[in-house]
Design a protein that fits this description.
Two copies of one chain form a homodimer.
Chain A (H helix, E strand, L loop, with lengths): L8 H15 L6 H8 L3 H8 L2 H24 L4 H18 L7 H8 L5 H28 L8 H21 L3 H15 L8
Chain B binds a DNA duplex through α3.
DNA sequence: TCTATTTTAGAACAATCGAACTAAAATACA
DNA sequence: TGTATTTTAGTTCGATTGTTCTAAAATAGA
């Protein structure tokens, strides 16, 4: 019926993610987005609504492409391995992050949830997905004997989400390998602490 | 020699902390600060310099009055007790935080360090102080037998800073008692895990 | 080839931003 | 009491903010 869109929505969202990710919500202007996505103001507002809605789309895009993808990749592994490999990847990504952008979800958690309950629910939902990923693997590991049963699976999962968030924060400020690996190591040691004489 | 200041610097800094803490750096305008501190634009720029410098002063004020004070209060306790009491207070404060402001230092870590290396160093310095607080107590606890020696004191301290940051992030998004206490409990259990048959 | 429909391109909008400026007010020292 | 010095109180500045508007350009169906 009408003129088709010239731009590639996925590429535009990638560019928008880059902007919001590295600069944050407030510090990213519409003109930043225009310059980096290549589309014009009218197209942006026409296709995505306002700045807030555009951020929402960008965040979803990031979550699915980054966190969701990582969880899917770890699903094929053994429970303990899945958790360890998850954290190994987080540490590696944090150390390779020369721009110190950190994780866009964690950034969103402190940046954008404050005065927008809708965003808070979105972020809380993703955190819940991550917690359930950990919980699933912890339970599986407890069942096959590779994970300690000295603590409740729910608490272990909550602890893992906690240390995940913590590592992401630390990495933004002090991206040292010793710090990040040191912060993670006790959590992984705790998981395996079932039969303690087995060294 | 000249006209003395009418305002109370400490009260002004308290008000500034409230602004920056709840709204963040970018979202806090000079006019917000003027309205909430009670002083005028000229007085503000005259006494504190520009917005950036004012934020720096406010952050210092917060750190000394909140984090520094908490560490000082825990210094008189036994090592294990000091760590546990520290986290108990963090969880309590997070649950009582109806505004979901979280910890201003953690907010600063993700908000203001990105494109200002000076701020990054300030925040990193405070994190180091907290890490050293934990390290001191862990070492003391390992010496008197109340803390496990199955992991290096350095790693335990790093882990504790990590989970501290993590709890602060989680609380911003999902301030549930079960989540926060669940995230902390395994870390405290790990500290005590020295003689594992003692249940 | 016409026409309806939608995306483009870029200018324009009011509002707000951080910062600076001009005087008036006020006080410690002489 | 006079004077030097500093804080006050608003106003004002140019730049930038998010958003909207007006046309021109482009294409699918008739």
């Amino acid at each position: 019926m009408a003129r088709p869109r010239k731009f590639d929505e996925d590429a535009v969202l990638d560019a928008a993610v880059q902007c919001f990710w590295s600069r944050g919500y407030e510090a990213t202007s519409i003109r930043d987005l225009i310059a980096n996505t290549g589309l014009t103001g009218a197209s942006l507002y026409n296709a995505f609504g306002d700045k807030r809605a555009f951020y929402q789309r960008a965040l979803d895009h990031y979550v699915e492409g980054s966190i969701g993808e990582r969880m899917r990749r770890c699903e094929t592994l053994e429970p303990r391995e899945a958790i360890e490999s998850f954290f190994a990847e987080i540490v590696k990504r944090s150390l390779d992050d020369t721009e110190h952008k950190g994780c866009m979800l964690v950034n969103a958690a402190l940046d954008v949830t404050s005065h927008d309950p809708a965003f808070q629910e979105v972020v809380a939902g993703v955190l819940l997905r991550i917690e359930e990923f950990f919980l699933h693997n912890v339970r599986q590991g407890q069942a096959d004997g590779s994970v300690t049963t000295s603590l409740a699976a729910e608490d272990l999962a909550r602890h893992l989400v906690g240390i995940l968030m913590g590592v992401r924060v630390l990495a933004r400020v002090r991206p040292d390998r010793a710090l990040l690996e040191g912060a993670v190591r006790p959590a992984l040691a705790l998981l395996a602490a079932e039969k303690p004489g087995a060294s």
